[in-house]
Specification:
Layout: E1 7-9, E2 15-25, E3 33-38, E4 45-49, E5 58-65, E6 73-79, E7 85-95, E8 104-110, E9 117-121, E10 127-135, E11 147-154, E12 157-165, E13 170-174, E14 181-188, E15 199-204
Amino acid sequence: GSNPASQNVTPPAGCNAVVMLWSYLQGTVGAGLLSSTLNSVAPDEVFELPDAGSNTQATGVAVWYDPPTGSAIALDVEWDVNPTEGPLTGVVFVQDANTAGYRDADAVCTGGPTQQSITLTTVSSDLVIVLDQRYLTPEPSTEAGYTSILTMSNASQFGRVRTIVASGATQTAATQDTNYSSVVGVVIPDAAGGVSIPVLGASLRMMNN
């Protein structure tokens, strides 16, 4: 439903940013994420591309900084509507993030017939985290240069979370299909220049239809 039960995540020791990436299809223009909390706290930052109708996804990112670590805490999500396909929800734990905020976030959806892409503003050593979504199997491919850390599926939707450490002023990410696909990405700067941000772990949390 639109308000699924909360699920527990455990940010490991050293984690100072929790990134939730999500996507679903319903068809109501403007629909997306109604609310989300981690340990009963609203996210520090949210980026969202709402449903635009015409078989396009609602997708987005929520980021929490300096979460409690080492024990299970509740991730609670409510959507604007009851998803028809999906939702897909992936959680990534990051260490050494600059808690002043992400550098950039963007998303694009395609209902066909061409592949679409986003271009994110980066600085060398930034961590770029991306969620790919596509309709039906197979799971989205891993774009060249990226590392796949998580795959998922739910109610006709298939997804992959991938990461890359930026090496210049921009980083692109493309949809992995030409039809009924989306990509959303966020750029997490490191806390002290010159050191890449390791991904400590990733945990899939299915907010079931």
